[in-house]
Amino acid sequence: MGYNAAPLERLIEQFAKLPGIGRKGATRLAYQVLSMDKEEALDFARAIEEAHTKIHRCRVCQNFTEDEICAICTGEARDHSVICVVENPRDVTAFERTREYRGLYHVLHGLISPMDGVGAEQLCIKELLARIQAGGVKEIIMATNPTVEGEATAMYVAKLVKPLGVKATRLAYGLPVGSNLEYADEVTLGRSLANRGEL
User: Fold this and answer.
1) Fewer CB under 10 Å: which end of the chain, C or N?
2) pTM of the prediction?
3) From CA 180, how far away is CA 88, in angstroms rounded?
4) Same domain, 161 and 193
């Protein structure tokens, strides 16, 4: 620990904070940054700073955007009667890759997980209910991961929207249980979307 210069050690520590990056990986990344020329390194730092200062949540769907309302929510070719409810913004990217889905999205920014101290009130559920109450929504697709937390969240949201006269469906199980939507291939994800069933 003590043989690295202090700024290098701080850089390693920052990389090590990222999920899935251990001390070895963090060290490799830090040395990679040091091998960049100064302009490249500053571009890298600026990209991180810009991502943090310019990106925020869409006022409607809670996905990340640079604008007040994201391009998907304002897209005229999108079907505004269907909302696909996902755990995080990475899942929106996964669905968009399938090119099968033309509706809108809603990002919860997490799942109900009592073990981790995450309750429904910490998720973007009230924003979803406000969208439904505004009218025009016929179906919500619960596209949370097929895990215990994903199932619990899907059932909870479905129970809330049913009295509002909206159909709640769940992705079909073309997706292996315990898997992550982010890593699913386009065909599997597209098929599970097409074969969704009512909750």
Assistant:
1) N
2) 0.78
3) 11
4) yes
The rounded Cα 93 to chain-centroid distance in angstroms is 8
Give the model confidence (pLDDT) of 123-138 as tens digits: 999 999 999 999 899 9
Residue with tokens 């890298």: 44
Number of structural domains, the chain?
A: 2
Other beta carbons within 10 Å of 58: 23
C-alpha torsion angle, residues 19, 24, 27, 28 (rounded to 10) = -100
Tokens of 170: 């769940």
Question: Is 179 contained in some domain?
Answer: yes
Q: In this structure, what CATH number is given to the domain that contains residue 127?
A: 3.40.1360.10
What's the CA gap between 105 and 10, in Å, rounded? 38
What is the residue range of 42's domain? 6-54
In this model, does residue 39 exceed pLDDT 90?
yes
Cα 9–chain centre separation: 31
Report helix angle 23-35 to 6-16, nearest 10. 120
Question: According to the 3-state scheme, what is the secondary structure of 97-151?
Answer: HHCCCCEEEEECCCCCEHHHCECHHHCCHHHHHHHHHCCCCCEEEECCCCCHHHH
Q: How far apart are CA 79 and CA 104, in angstroms?
A: 7
Answer for the pair 62, 106: CB distance below 8 angstroms, yes or no.
yes
Whether residue 119 sits in one domain with residue 23: no
- CA angle, 75 as apex, 146 and 170 as ends, to 5°? 20
Round to whole Å and give the CA distance between 175 and 150.
13
